């Protein structure tokens, strides 16, 4: 399946799509000189997989040099990653089935995506809530009690801390990556956002100037000598947080819509198939009845 989302707010561009499309857009933006500080680009890495916005600009073609320079203006929002030994072991175990069936060249099999992590942690959360409910004398069939014990709690998941709020929604933790070495074209995490308390952690590699819009209005030639100086309307920490959270929410809504549409289509197809079967049975019964009546006559 392919997701494609692009939101443009004045000079801030938020994208969520395949790596090839991201590269095409960034190359086109660079050709139009939009990557010189006039626009700030954000890419939401939806699946933590190599085919979705991992910041990879290199393809080994004639456009690599332009792509590297263009990606210097691209910031990638991804799930906060940890280096827990448990997660490393979990990743190895997840890769084993692919190796057994001979998928050694699977380009996305090197990473465990958000759905696999989420399914693991959801099952762990259910187990914790079920154990508590049964320990306090409730039946394992008491879904209301079990569900209530899954809300408003924090526990340690396979890839880090998992926090569920009072409404049963997960508080997401995200990282922001930027190209810290343009010559080498390497990325590094410069900031982290923690959903449980809404805080924004700036790391040593964070550079405020990188998130500041630059001038250069052609309608005001008297300002052209200052076009390379960051203007005072640069994105602050709070605004940057809003952009990141907004981008992630947009991606989540897109995923939810996809699965809703898919499940709805499956339900309709099953219902239509069932109706066709029922119609066929009724038609056959009518024909048998008519044939029987003629035989009796």
Show the helix and strand layout.
Blueprint: E1 4-9, E2 12-17, H1 19-31, E3 40-44, H2 64-71, E4 74-79, H3 85-100, H4 114-135, H5 143-148, E5 153-157, E6 160-164, E7 170-171, E8 173-181, E9 186-194, E10 199-202, H6 237-296
Parallel strand pairs: 2-3, 3-4
Antiparallel strand pairs: 1-2, 4-8, 5-6, 6-7, 8-9, 9-10
Biased composition (Basic and acidic residues): 275-290
Domain Receptor ligand binding region: 12-180
InterPro entries: ANF_lig-bd_rcpt, ANP_Clearance_Receptor, ANPR/GUC, Peripla_BP_I
Describe, in plain words, how this protein is organized in 3D.
The chain crosses the membrane at residues 235-260. The chain has 297 residues and is of the alpha+beta class. It has 2 domains: 1-80 and 172-255, Response regulator (Rossmann fold, 3-Layer(aba) Sandwich), CATH 3.40.50.2300; 82-170, 3-Layer(aba) Sandwich (Rossmann fold), CATH 3.40.50.2300. Helices cover 42% and strands 19% of the residues. The chain is built from 6 helices and 10 strands; from the N terminus they run E-E-H-E-H-E-H-H-H-E-E-E-E-E-E-H. Strand 2, helix 1 (19-31) and strand 3 (40-44) form a beta-alpha-beta unit. Helix 1 packs across helix 2. It is globular. The termini are far apart.
